[in-house]
Amino acid sequence: MSGLERGSVERQARKVVPGRGWRPGEENRQDLMLRYLSAVATASAARAGEQPPPPKAPRPVLDEDKSVPITPRVREVMSVPAVSVRGETSFLEIVRTLSREHLGAVPVVDADGRVIGVVSESDLLAKAAAQVAVPHPGPVRRLREHRLYEKGRGETAAALMTSPAITVAPGTKVADAAWLAARSRLKRLPVIDHRDRLVGVVSRIDLVRALVRDDTKIREEIETRIIRQGLLLDPGAFEVTVENGVVSVSGEVDGSLIPKLLESIEEIDDVVEVSEHFTAR
Description:
Layout: H1 3-15, H2 26-48, E1 61-62, E2 69-70, E3 85-86, H3 91-101, E4 105-109, E5 115-120, H4 121-132, H5 139-152, H6 157-160, H7 174-184, E6 188-192, E7 198-203, H8 204-211, H9 215-230, E8 238-243, E9 246-253, H10 258-266, E10 273-280
Parallel strand pairs: 3-4, 9-10
Antiparallel strand pairs: 1-2, 4-5, 6-7, 8-9
Helix pairs in contact: 1-2, 2-7, 4-5, 7-8
């Protein structure tokens, strides 16, 4: 990841941290977003061949039967069927579709279902803005306003859309899709097959849920992978609680195993902090 890109991710992380006291439930949302941004930054670092920066990025889920890592793919989290409009769809019908489906953007497809662009609320606002814009002097401003005006004259999805569309394939890694969405500042990405046909849509919240495991799954990994399989101990002899990534574990255990147990828990992805209350024997 370049210094510029890392700085961009860090700025995004700072933006989601409020400067005043959090409202009820806000702290959990902030923690989720920071963990998500960390995963996005790690995906970028991996693509660039660098070591990922702390904190840790999510580790692939293990298949209990085959004991091999499974990398989450877009196909597992995308929404189907995907709402779309045809290129000849009128301006008013696009507005109705976005309103009816509670969306901010929708893919535009041709007669064969291939994605040719995306029309968003911003594209629709360009049409409204062009109708009331006041001319300003300056060659750069005139060029920008001319482009805005030309787009604003459009009456169909094909004329108003942004093209080419930024898309992902069903087999794309969730972490890579998350990085693409972050860099493009998009809330939703069309998912296309090898013929560019629309097969689904993946949203940022879908990616967040796939990248950041909830507390229940963290606790299950501690009890199953570490306590039962790793140390061959009885999970029933321990009390493990996880809240917002903070792990609290207690129980009676051989004192020589405590360092290894704590180290293994701290290495689990999405664990923020570990609080131990062991009784050594």
